Amino acid sequence: MLPRPKPGESEADLLKFQNQFLASKASPAVKVIKKADKRRGDGGSGDEERLPLQHDRDVVSLDDFPDVPPTLTPGPPKKTKFRRTHVHFEDPEEQLEHGDRHIMAVLSKIIEHDTSTGSVTLPLSTGDPFPRVFHRSEIKTEPKPEAGRRSIFSQKIAAKRAAEEAQASSLAGQKNTEWTTPDASLPPMALEVQLLRTEEEKSVGTLHTQRPCIVTGDGLGSLIGKQEAQKIHQENLERLQSMSKEEILEEQKRLLAQLDPSLVTFLKSRRSIDTSQKGEEKMELEKQEEFVHLETWSKSQHEAEEIAETPSFQEAAMDEEPDTEDFQRAEACTRMNVTDGNLPLKPQKEWLHMDNVEFEKLEWMKDLPHPQQRKTRKGMQARFSLKGELIPPDKDFPTYWGLHHHGEEAERAGYSLQELFHLSRSQVIQQRTLALHVLGHVVQKAKAGEFASLLKGNVLRVLLDAGFLFLLRFSLDDTVDNVIAAAVHALHALLVSPDDEKYLDKTFSWYQGMAVYPFVPNKEEEVEEEDEDDDNEQTPMENKLGRKSEAENKPDPEVARYDVIKGLLKTKILHRLRYILEVMKPVPLVVLEILDILIRIARHSTEVCSQVLDCPRLIETVVREFIPTQWDPKVAESGQLLASVHGVPCAAAMKMIRVLASGGRNAAARLLNKYEMKNRLRRFIAEDPKDLSLRREEAIRLSTEAFRLWAVAAGYGQACDLYSDLYPVLLKMIPSLSHLVKSSEENKSIYNLSIERATSMVTLLSQITQTAGCRAELQAQLSRSGPEDGDQIPPPPISWSQVSGFRPLIETNLKKCLKEICELGTWQALQPLATTYVIYLGLYYDNYSKQPSVNTVDCLEEVERLTFEMVLPFLSHPAMQTQWEMLRPCSVLCNPLSCSPAPESLPSIVSLSCAGGKPPMSLVGSKSPFAFLTALLVLVNSITHIHKGLTGKYVSVLDTKGLNDYLLQSWTTGPPSIFHSSAWLLRHEYHLQYFVLSLAQKMADACPDYGQHASLHHCVAMVLLSRLLPGSEHLAHELLLGLAFNPKLIPEGQAGGPEAADFSDILHLGSRTKLTQPGSVASISPLPSRGDLLKEAYQHLPFIQACYLSYFVCLEPALNRSRNAYQGRTHLIQSMLLPEVKGPTLPSDWPFLPLISLYNMVTGAETQGAVMNSFPVDLVNIMIRSLQWVLLLETWRARILQGISAAAKLVRLMCVFLTGSDLFLEGAVHCYTAALLSLYCHSKVLDSLDLDAPLPGLASFYDLYIKLLEQFEGVSFGDPLFGVFVLLPLQRRFSVQLRLAVFGEHVGALRALGVPLQQFPVPLELYLSPPEDNLNLVRQYFQTLVTGVLQQSWCPVLYVVAVAHVNSFIFSQESTTQEINVARKNMLQKTCLLADEALKRHLLYYKLPNRDSLIGFDLYEQLPPIRLKHLHTVTKKDHEQGASHL
Description:
flat; mainly alpha
């Protein structure tokens, strides 16, 4: 029995079954019988009776040709045309057989035609070997007759007769015209040339035509109309002949500008129709002659086309409007005539089916013009190649490259972004795929900065604003694998930076390298003030929940505008990626790119890590498919191309799990327990990479990521039970790392991967050591706790004795590495491994000294042995000097441009700007010493902390010239800009500076003669305090505790610093005027000098320190998190993600922080209705300590506060007067405030004072000044110091609104502003120059003077100001508006009529300000002639006007 086909059989199987069936010669189960088609007329043809033979065909044979023709059988009856038009369902073979007849049915009786009476003519001799072939194009198309068609022969005869008749009529009625008909007697060559010349003249548009083309005279009668039209035509010709060519062209342009475009088209069509009708009457020349003169014809036609580009008019009037059909026909004809000159071929009337010329299609057949660079300032549209490269606008490419298309600027190669967007939504799969691939390449090159100097604007911003992100998201929902792969590739190019991941992996094993900043954009949407006010009335938890719900309700594009990752998460991209991985199972490249995208998403924040973990079946799919414990060993075969990575371990998947675990300890616990990652860690750590059934590189990467994942878990105090299981494996691996020092590995890539694996292994041991070091503390807490203390953290299952055995092994390996420091190439490769060794030893000894089971004497001996045997000899090595000297070239602080954001970076997509790699001479470059020197300083600080007696042995570190040069340049350079691209690098550099300062603190406490670099280290510490980033609160707290207020680091307090300050005040250094501190209404006698105040501040440094440390209470939660991380208390670490980077931990003006906090506290209390007339002693002391510290810094560390503007300092000092009602009257507060004011009134400071610029923490300076005026009016008691602060903002260069406020609404303050001129520290010239130009203010000056509100005894300073400006105004003779002129005259006239002679003399005779004068200014003894003349002129006119009125 023959087998039957089954589902799933291939074509080959079906052919095999067919051959078996034919070989068995079995009868088929079904027999096909063809029935007659009833729709056919010859249904009874008998075809169904024929056997279906394989080769049944009729063959024509003439072997048995009969002598007598057979009788003709009548044909089938004729069918109607309607029947023939029906559709016939007929087999093609049957149709062929039906139409194939025997030759006997074709031949019939032949009767010859009688030609005896016909004339026989011999053919003309042409000299050609063969007769000329007749071509149908030689027959002119005639209007088709209504009845029937005409054959070519009949058309030829008719054309011949028409030519004869036309020749006869032309001989009878030929007229004298400019051009003549070609003479038939001319030879063929001359005839052709004349015809061509005639055609050329016609195409140019000659002025001598036979008859008019526009004005025909049809409406005037047959004879009269034609005569009138001809008469008008002749007049037009005569007028045109009298004009030059330039006049004709100028008139033509004028007409074209005035006439309607549709009318112009119609006029052109009339002439075109006339010309075409004339051309139809001529016969074409012979084919030979046309070929001979082809070159001449092309040349003349080209010239005609160039001239025809400027259309000309001969008649500009018409009598009647044509109907619509005539107009459209004429317009089409004109379009053909005007446009055909630019077409790639010339349409001829004789061509079939070319009656309606499709110009758009013929336009595509033209040769593209060469692209040219436009000489214009307007930018050209950017076009890209298929590889995403920018194509220059003037560069020509072959058309077969596929870069040309029929869009805009067809001559330019490449695709614009708009065209790629349009192509990406095409219905053709290949077009969608191509567009997405090109966009992905464009994004890659844009992120690399290749378009920064070539294109105007940001390519990535343009793409995102155009909806590129959601275009990719829509493309991911496609059903075609190629489109999905292209969309994943483009999304990978947009989100992922491989170089960023490379350098993050490199810094993973640095000191505190596992902790990274989240990739959360800094720029968030601005919140309306109303919303902020509402939020202030709610609790912090309610605010947080409200903002979260508000963010969820925002549309996706609005969210993506500020944060691309959050915008993608709102589109359920995690679910789609999971579906692609789980169901569609794409190719390996797409899988790896999806894993990279998931890694980038997980780096966003802890919240996003939770969303990734909560996505259904996503983590299960990744763990099951890409981190299996068993797989096919064939993947390890060399040359084996992986068709799929599903079911094969992948290092990228392990890295994704590690990044998710870094999001928080809860996420790490879920991954380890729920998804059985512990078993997989055992699988890939216990086995050597070369024994894994994977490719060598992938096996090493997978093992490296497994160690890193375990290190992250150990950083939380988790997965410690694995240590007991894998302890023998680790004990075997650590000694084997020594072979990397002298490795014979030829493959450099594998060697570098092996170094990375070794560093991750040692980093794991460091974390486990820290976890074991916390066991004793947790054990003690557990033993002391009672039932009321609640749940306690259980101690880790690792004791100190279980980890101490690795220390000798690490030391042995480190010694071998340090010996290679002389070999530059080897040292650069081994430096990452040596760094982790040193970090391990530093953390080990730090925890070793805290263990209660360790003997203190043994610990000290161990530290001494390590110092003298390894550390000190290594520090004295000559190669170490090179390491210190490399700090400046590789520093971020000294080279700010090394960490600047990429040109195409966007705030909504966080990037570390590592595209293209970092140079070797950078902080993370191959030659950077920062990681190793930081680790070395960590070890040195651990040693000196344990053994204080060894501190002096490391003085050579602080004396290193390279280190001191680096520190000096780092703190004198301006503050760095904080971006994500700089924050992660600055954090590592700040670690090095902190440990240098920590060693300096120990050196100052242990060495009495320390002081050579004390000022330098104090300046670095003060600057570092204002630069430390979030997550480093512990370091800032330690700097405040030990360095910032350490008297030993401020040698000026002991070496004549106060005396130098007093000497400077005596010499008036830096001041234009002699500075005398303003007095006080309180009894303060005598006023202390600045030197005395500095001595007192220096002695109160411990109290100042306590004051500033108290303000760390608000930072207590962040301080605890930071302290836990730096002290290695792994059981308390909640996440490896640092706080978001929004700026430094402490503000740049942190020395003024107590003043601001006290002002906010008092203002808040007064807002709630409380009145604080007096302050407790501790609050007064806080104010004093803050002012003391600011005075000390302004005197001895002035450069540290240079980052704070003079206006900001002045505003913060104003808080002294705005806090309470009488705090400024306290003696110490008044003295220190006056001393600071004298410093801020130096010439350089006053020149830099800008009150119009925006100030940090202040919405409006005007509002603050109004509060200050109100406070002065209420509680000042005329205090001169308070008055100086009121007068300072009234300088001429500042806003006039401040002066209007004093002389307007708060004019009562003038009665109390009695600051003596001798105590006023600001030069009066700043108030008097330039002259006041505000008319309202000058009127208020004059009004207050005249009414007596402003008097010299009450307000000496402003009295001088008002008199000077009024005097300048009334005697000014500059040309200006009529209103000001009238005001000047009126004010001068009123001044002359004043009854107060003293004021009158002051206003008229004011000369110059003089601080030493009793009235504050000098007077003219006699007015200058020009002023006197002006005064007489004004008063005389006034007298004359008064007399005329009388």
